[in-house]
Design brief:
The protein has seven helices and no strands. The two termini are 28 Å apart. Helix 1 packs across helix 2 and helix 2 packs antiparallel against helix 3.
């Protein structure tokens, strides 16, 4: 859960869990820091924050975050473009998800025309 969405009760439970697992606390903090850097409006500050995040991941010594860091580095150019124009492909991803769901519900739609009809009908509600 995002830090800003935690109520007092949840926050207290999270603190108790962190006492049991310091590694989990580091992981949660890295996740929150990454979320925060995506909200920085200035591109130079965003890039600096991203580089700082890379350093913190290296220092944290959490194997899963090494993989996350490598993935972020592989997509760094696209992430920096997000900082520039603040547009994502979320709508297209959602549409692809909806089409896959329609295919799954229809047990695979053998005719492309029928699939198109089902997709168009489902999009009428958007």
């Amino acid at each position: 859960m995002a830090g800003e969405d935690l109520d007092d009760d949840s926050h207290q439970r999270l603190i108790e869990i962190f006492k049991l697992s310091p590694a989990l606390e580091k992981a949660w903090e890295l996740k929150e820091e990454f979320r925060d850097l995506l909200q920085i409006p200035d591109i130079k500050e965003s890039i600096e924050a991203l580089n700082h995040w890379y350093e913190k991941v290296s220092q944290a010594k959490l194997n899963l975050f090494y993989k996350a860091k490598r993935t972020v580095k592989n997509w760094e150019e696209n992430i920096i473009n997000y900082f520039r124009i603040r547009i994502t492909n979320g709508f297209a991803e959602g549409l692809n998800n909806k089409i896959k769901l329609i295919k799954r519900i229809g047990y695979g739609v053998p005719k492309v025309e029928n699939l198109k009809r089902r997709v168009f009908l489902s999009l009428l509600s958007i």
